[in-house]
Amino acid sequence: MSGLSFRIAWRFLKSSRGQTILILLGITIGVSVQIFIGSLIDGLQRSLVDNTIGRSSHITVEPAGSARYFERDDDLIIQLTADEQADKLAVSYSNSGFMVYEDETWPLLFRGFELDQADSIYRFSESLVEGDMPANSSEILLGSALAAETGIEPGDMITAVNPEGKSSELTVSGIFDLQVSSINESWAISDLIAVQELFSADNQLSSIEIQIEDVFSADTIAAGWSGLLSEEQKITNWKDQNASLLSGLSGQSASSYMIQVFVLLAVLLGISSVLAISVVQKSRQLGILKAMGIKDRAASWIFLAQGLILGTVGSIIGTGLGLLLNWSFSVFVKNPDGSSLVPFYFDPVFVFVSMFIAIIAATLAAFIPARKSSKLNPIEVIKNG
Amino acid sequence: MAELLKLSGINKVYGEKIKTQVLFDIDLAFEAGSFNAVIGESGSGKSTLMNIMGTLDRPTSGEVVINGTKTASMTKDQLAELRNQTIGFIFQFHYLLPEFTVLENVLMPALIRKGRIDDRDKKRALELIDLVGLSRVKSNLATDLSGGQQQRTAIARSLINEPKIILGDEPTGNLDSQTTESIYTLLREINQEIKSTFIIITHDQRIAEKADRILEIKDGRINLDVDKYVAKTGGNA
User: Fold this and answer.
1) What pTM was estimated for this model as a whole?
2) Would you report the helix, strand and coil content of chain B in percent, each value rounded to 5?
3) Is the ipTM of this complex over 0.85?
């Protein structure tokens, strides 16, 4: 594009200020709605996924077939830990047993973790409502529902019993609340070694639980890792177990794209029609310019440049406005507990792609008026009395 | 002296089914530096002739040769370039760009020519604006001028690319007689000074009489051709 077309385009836009502001407003609103809806849905999905699987295993290595446990394989654990796709890893041994407290017996699921590792996934320490994390193999955490039922407090002693009758004395170091009542009732969380000893299951594991960065690639990553496993192990991932959530998410994405496409289309038609009118309005000027020797291509570029300028300015303002709306939404629309209903989420790729598309679309919308202008014959305009 | 603009066998027919012939076998040549007036009643075909001479319109048959170049085989872009560099237009209605100032309007053909403006262009534009007596209003928008000032701006604009030919189609058609007089005096001065060739359509007999050569068009044909220029210079200047 020559400086000539750009200068004329700029002046045309500046001199018909009302029209320019109107069309800019159209683009700005369109782009801001697009950015707002897109970012909102994106943020919503991220928080939904985070709530659903943020504190659970994304990819799990489990015993194959009917077996409940497999032999601990340190090579496998080292390989998985070293893999760049794996973010956090925790091994666990879990088994059902009983707790005896003040002559009463309660069924419990004893879950043994290497607590430092497991805490990074399950965030037990953040879930403590009383007491502290277990400091050694003789301490245990109980759920808040069980504690309320039994009146157990941190510091109390309980007796853990396995189904064969083997028992060990453990101190309750703290009470957790994992927001799920069945877990709060039935889980007892302790050190891996302590639980393995209780059930005489040295070196046995019931699962290796892994969190990954890119949660939506869980299935492909899991498939890639399946070759590392022995025959007594199998691998599962969260996507297989949450098909309905995933179909909900993809439905939501599809409707979000639909909205974005139609908003963009409306903006396009707006730009196109205003510029088409402006070709008619400026036909006299175009005729003069052509008589003075402007070439058809340069005349077309006057309108494409107008589209480009309008698209660029409109999408920059629109993006700012859209992000501001998102931010306000995250600040002012709250859950009862004070957290944002939809947290503010800025995806630079989405934002820049949206801006880019809006600019290209605005320029393309100017294409029809531009063609029209190049066909204009100066003697249609320059008629003398 | 060289023939700057030559028309031979020009016919112009409008319409597909009902044909209206506007020009009949026009043969004309204009010499460099001359000041020519074309007169004729409205509908005589003089404006069509002017559009054809200015390459804004193509003849149905015949040849237009400008500055030694045959225009018949030229593309639209080549014609645009030829117009930009060789021909300056002054129309009856000034046809200035209302979005631009006097100075910017005057510079526009130079901007079209090169895509940018340098100091030399600007200096020349200011000289031309001075020449037509508009220095005081050079930063006004074209719409904030009187009719005479607008036409003076159009004259300055027609001169910016130093064209060999200036075509004027009733350049004073909508001005009062006093302003008309002063515009013609100005055109004449410019003609003397920079030796551009002027071809001016007018219906004003008094104005036409001041030209070197008067052509009268009637019903699409040349009815009268009086060449005082040849007489004055003995035809061998």
Assistant:
1) 0.74
2) 40, 30, 35
3) yes
